[in-house]
Amino acid sequence: MDTASRGGAVKQASPLPFNPADYFTFVLDQEIRNIGLPGGYCGFALELAEQPDLERLQQRLDLLVEYFPIASARIERQGKRYAWVTTSQRIVLERHQCRQGEQAQGIQLAILNRQESLPLTLHWIASGTGGTLLLNWNHPLLDARGVKIVLDFLASDRPESFKESPSLIEAKLAQWSFWKKCCLFFKAKRHNRVVNSMDSCLPTQEEQGPQTLQVKVRHFSEEESRQIAKLAQQHTGLAGRTLYYLGCFMRAVEQVGPPVAKDGYCIPYAFNLRRQNAPTPVFGNHVGCLFARAARDQVRDRQGLFEHLLAQHRQVVREELDLAYLTLMWLGQWLSPARYAKILRKQHSGGELSSLWFSDIGDLSWGKKGFLGTAVTGMSLLCWMTLPPGLALLAGQLNGRLTLSYNYLSPAVDEAWLDVVIAQMDVELLAEA
Amino acid sequence: MKEKLKAFIFSELIYHEDPASFGDDADLLEAGLDSLGIMRLIMFAEKEFGVTLPDTEIEPDNVNSLDALEKWIRQAGAGQ
Q1: CB contact under 8 A, B39 and A239
Q2: Core-most of A61, A63, A341, A350, by most CB within 10 Å?
Q3: For residue A408, what are the β-bridge partners?
Q4: Nearest CB to A276; choose among B34, B55, B60
Q5: What is the pLDDT of residues A140-196, one digit of tens each?
Q6: Residue A152 and residue A156: Cα distance in Å, rounded?
Q7: What are the structural domain ranges in chain B?
Q8: What is the CATH number of domain B2-78?
Q9: What pTM did the predictor assign?
Q10: CB A276 to CB B14 under 8 A?
């Protein structure tokens, strides 16, 4: 690894308070740290056919910190709230070299498993004539769509066109009258009560102990990806690709057998307030939370499950429960991390709410130009998660090819069990009616 | 109708440098309308225009342009 100094002067800016979604992710980051793990760090790995111009990449990293000092800021408590405080630290591109026979994935995991002080680091992992560019970030800093924008900034010919803008959640909240907010708040509270009433099946019984992050990546071919998209449209309609992945996962676990067998499955998933293809905001989290829930007997009926998940999603959007959740997130900012975490994670029975952490980054493409002129040949995603569930499924599609990254805590989640679930998931995703 | 749909799409779902120049027959899916966005758009249309758009009809041909959306919403309205 290049051990060049991380020092260097950049301009200072005043503290930037967390927005409600930043705090939401910070609370989960703290939950992960509380059991001795590095925190809510995530990784976005881009496989490149050749080595890009690393000097240019470093210049762009310097420019990133100059334009957006938050990129190397630290978190500080200010009264009851938390904020980003700039540090003047440079982000130095870290260079790694795969030894003969060594896989880039091993180095990626070593990076994610180390203790990190910066909220964002960038790594070039050379392997053969190409390599992997890994962007490692702490979730309170930005969401996954923001990471794509940061990568676009690093490769853009017009970096000056990237500008920061205020929190989209706060902008949305500001559109509503006091009474509308109250109404949505009580609606969200009622919805939460219902969500917390069904005990969730979990992938592990463990709740603590030393763990390392591991990942299993499943790349689907173009033909398989097309088939999955076709089946998703057939079962959950054009509007339900995310629901198709979630339903297939529930069924795969149910068929293999959940290590903690309770009443059903609950999988939170994000809805993004960012507009598709918008170059701004760059930093910050701009997401709300939705829940895919199904009882075990519903999961056993494949067609019925997809109909149920789609109807559930429609109802949530129709009743504005997706937006209503933002009012809960706004109020959550005033709670201590421990108290907020309890509300976010615990069901009425005291069990863990989430059967799985899930994120779908959607369709990505770097077009003919590639990343800094280099062809992007693959991608994968990494993230830490709380224990339980100790398992996260991250989906993304690059140039029409679906990639599923199964991140898990070891030894909490049994690798042999997960291998069978992944094989069953493939069957479910590609199953004809 | 198309103006209302367009205003919602470009203020909430898709970024476009110049929404006014986005044609009524231009491809919304290529412009970035994703699966959850489609659902929000359908819910907006149902509420705004007082129609019910059946799940079984959520197909590319019905949502891939402003023209297609308007036609689908009018047909759904006529049948109710």
Answers
A1: yes
A2: A61
A3: A214, A391
A4: B34
A5: 999 999 999 999 999 999 999 898 888 999 999 999 999 999 999 999 999 999 999
A6: 6
A7: 2-78
A8: 1.10.1200.10
A9: 0.93
A10: yes
